[in-house]
Amino acid sequence: MKEEWDVIVVGGGHAGIEAALAARRMGCSVVLISAKIGRIGELSCNPAIGGIAKGTIVREIDALDGSMARSADSTTLHFRMLNRKKGPAVWGPRVQSDAKEYARTQQRHLRNSGVTIIEDEVTGLDGLTEKVSGVRCRKSSSIKGKTVVIAAGTFLKGRLFRGDEHWKGGRIGDISADSLEDDIVRRLFHVERFKTGTPSRILQNTVNTEQLEVQKSEKTSFTFSYDKSMNNGLEEVCYVTYTNRNTMEIAKDNLHLSPLMVGRIEGTGPRYCPSYEDKVVKFPERMRHKIYVEPMGYKSRYFYLNGLSSSLPREAQEKIVRSLDGFSEAEIADYGYAVEYSYFHYTEIDDTLRLRKTENVFAAGQICGTSGYEEAAGLGLIAGANAGRVAKCLEPLSLSRMESYIGVMIDDIVSKGADEPYRMFSSRAENRLHLRQDNADRRLHNTGELFGILSEDKSELLNGNLREAGRIKVLLEKEIVDGIRLSKWCRRPGTSVEEVVSAANSLAGIDEEVLKSVLLDEKYSGYIERNLRRYESRRDLEKISLKEISSYMEVEEICWEAREALEKSRPETLAGAERIPGIRPTDLQGLLIYLDRRRSTWNNARAGEI
What we know:
Blueprint: E1 5-10, H1 14-25, E2 30-34, E3 48-50, H2 54-63, H3 68-74, E4 76-82, E5 92-97, H4 99-113, E6 116-119, E7 122-128, E8 131-137, E9 141-150, E10 159-162, E11 165-168, H5 178-186, E12 191-198, E13 201-203, E14 213-215, E15 238-242, H6 245-253, H7 276-282, E16 290-295, E17 302-306, H8 314-322, E18 332-334, E19 337-344, E20 361-363, H9 373-391, H10 405-415, H11 440-451, H12 456-478, E21 480-481, E22 484-485, H13 486-489, H14 497-503, H15 512-523, H16 525-539, H17 560-569, H18 574-578, H19 585-609
């Protein structure tokens, strides 16, 4: 054991893994503390990586040299590109992974990188809140560190629910980090409660798959990782079934036994991934809900029922499952349950993911108010990188929301917060025509170099892609087709890559993926430039400080609702005020008027004194 570590990471989930690896790539000494080493990197819910917007985050993680993309590629069993009916800017790559192999692969990445792993429970921070000296553990006593990343997932005072059953835990079979939360609250950090859940797992040999819709994997050369990590060549079939009137009636008959419906769970759940009983209450007119039947691994004994999350009693879950087509004889291996847990209120976190009350503690993953593996991993990478920078006595850095989905997510979380577990959607990004999964390498190369988290191999690879893209752009500007410069010709609707290549012999033999990406940049260039101009004009609002306003309740130039919202959030700049839900343009104008009057009064008073 070292006398003092550069970075201590608390938690071995998706956020903790990326945090530890990012700090290690910077040359920091890193220790990761997990309650159970064997469960590090576990896909606790659905064994799938990616999706709409989420798939772009995975590619951004890879562009910053994270491990999630490589692990997903090497354990892929099924691939789909979601959202193909819309433009390529919002396509979402998604893979079904082998759950056990994914966790093993992530654990190998940690070991191979030189991260030290300790199996223990962190019971609190050590030292003064303003600058902690490390963490306290149940078995290892105090572990000293220059910085700490808390990536505790759903473990902060985690509580599990199923019907009348309830017990402590961050997930089934694991502990609840009660002592750590007690210490966090004692240090006057503001925490609130969220809820999530998981469906039952079904024994595959008890399901009649002939009654289900088959969903085969798409044939593709796509990989999440830009280093073209090859998948394992294994493949599994996924299926689809549907709920029906009988399913709905069973759920209705048992709503009085739902811990969510009777108020035993206080935390808010994810709107876009609700439990089945929640669907029944909120959408009473819909009896037919799609359920994705997905294997937990290659030749696995278990199916995962994506879309049928439930915390109803075991008997009710059995009836619901057996009401589905193909599941009349189904046997449940593991029953669904709900998880209620604590997370940091957004006012506690700044845009570098540092906790505002401290100099050297960072938060990452679901304790920031997010949901999903991909969101957690993206936050972990940035938190770990910034913890490494602080350990090296460098200023932590923040991401612009114009350069990445991770930047959009962080900006949303720390400026607006969330009244439900935050999930990334492409619609949240005003610059989404630029923030595509195909160009994440080129968008984030400079960021990776600036943070200092790119390995030599990754830096060389991304530099090669940049050079190739630059060469293509030069050729597009040089070539003339039908009297029009090729860079403009390729913007015409419906123009394919094949047409562009056939029109210009100079493009023959060029990497097709890079060429496609550059052509999309050209197609969307007008929109991208317009979005950047709008963003730059709004950045002027960041220069207008609101720190001199001691009480927003006294600002008569804005409406009462705005006063309450601003007093609660206490934004530091006018740009921060603009991002608060419910603040209107007229309120921003009112703040400017108030500031002008206040400064005019102050200047007049000074002139009188002179």
